[in-house]
Amino acid sequence: MSGSQNYINHVALVLDASSSMAHLSRKVVEVADQQIAYLARRSRELDQETRVTVYVFADAVECVIYDKDVLRMPSLKELYRAGGMTALLAAALKSQRELAQTAQLYGDHSFLTFVLTDGQENASHRCEDAPSRDARELVTAVADMMETQQDNWTLAVLVPDQMGKREAMQCGFPRDNIAVWDATSTRGLEEAGQVIRQATENFMVGRTQGIRGSRAVFSTGADAVNKDTIKAAGLTPVDPSAYQLIPVSRDAAIRDWVVECGHTYRTGAFYQLSKSERIQARKRIAVLEKKTDRVYSGPEARALLGLPDTEVRVRPDHNDHFTIFVQSTSVNRKLVPHTRLLLML
Fold this sequence. Notes:
Structural class: alpha/beta
Distance between the termini: 42 Å
Number of domains: 2
Strand order of the largest sheet: 3-2-1-4-5-6
CATH architecture of the largest domain: 3-Layer(aba) Sandwich
Helix content: 25-40%
CATH superfamily of the largest domain: von Willebrand factor, type A domain
Largest sheet: 6 strands, mixed
CATH class of the largest domain: Alpha Beta
């Protein structure tokens, strides 16, 4: 790609409009409109062109907006009406089949689709938008489609429960492109909107670093880190003489343990992430490569983990190769035995 070519994002929302979504109709419109406003703002800030497509599905699948400039998008208020069954597989197939016909000339094009559903598939076998009438064949068709998509395609789904997650995995969705949301309340839908926004942020920041698609779009944690993402984020290791790793052998406050181990405490020592917790925007992150004890830090490390510049919950998901460390701004932060403390010297 020459330097003059644009980043062009094709972002699609594929929204369940079955009868069971009726009580959330107003909130669906609000959340979708907020996502579009967010996309418009970030597209300007990151100088990325973004085009938006919206599908709604119930008994049939309808494209209500196709590949429209995000800066010219209308509200979905007049376009979303709930009623009918759930043709989920047909919606996945039709949205990706039609988007694949979009021209990809003169630019670095990338396709990101979010499917939001509050229930299980129950209508695609009767839907003209699906190429097969047999439910098992439809599952296979979706899995085959995902298997053959190019590296600049990302397809993610939000489902209401673990059964939905299992069904999505059977359809070939990567585990980290599936999120579970609380479909019983407007609060749950608001939180789903936040998850989509955070995933979009990860995606758009990743675009600036050369990443074209993702099989871990909902991942914020150690499982988002590998050698490829480190390279793409442009991270260079911290000089080994500039830090020390200290084993933690008992419960202790962070300052007490640093002093007990013979060091001077400075604000901003890093503790090892050992449980899911909220991390503020101002907190620095460091990533440790287990095999070499190389440490990577700086703002790029936040981007590497897919963390937005807002407060967010992060999981310490097991990763064979990397460990996350978080800056402590409290001298009384309790350290967990059998973890390590990262001290910048």
